[in-house]
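Section: protein folds

Sequence with per-residue tokens
===
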Amino acid sequence: MNEVLLAPTPQRWYDVACERWRELLVDHANCEKKAASTALSLIFTYADDLQLTDRMSRLAREELRHFEQVQKMMQELAVPFVRLTPARYADGLRKATRRSDPGRLIDLLLCGALIEARSHERFVGLAPKLQAPLGDFYGGLAASEARHFGVYLKLAEQRAGQQDWRARLKHLAEIEADLATSPDSHLRFHSGLPPR
């Protein structure tokens, strides 16, 4: 799965994330809500695609369960909810998507696959660096992200038909790699290099 990520997360991101884990946990809650929202948006936009709506319905429920788990973790660790500014990551990927179908749907699915792949990589990287219970929690979530990656990628491949979805994935992966590794103004679960 990580073969689609064209650059690894820099070590400095992990260092800052471990120092500022409370901020990261709050953003993680936001990410789970956004992931559920994305799946629901696809259900509404592509309501005639029954296979897609079935898979996205299940994925949305799982993302909301993860949101509930993150909220519970925040309560256990006495991390208050605070409003955070959005990351540039998702917006940067969104700007790269095509505006009309069928290309738009394929791009949205490929972006979903890339986001889940990056989440998996960061959960795996964070798990041994963070103390329990947070490190164990992140380690447990990694398998879900890998499964979600596979769902998005398979749906994109099935809907691409004769289109070269691999070339499109490579193009989007190049943008994703830059967003995940270049200097960023904030620490977010899906950010580039945050300030110290």
In short: Helices lie at 11-19, 21-45, 50-76, 88-96, 103-126, 134-160, 165-181.
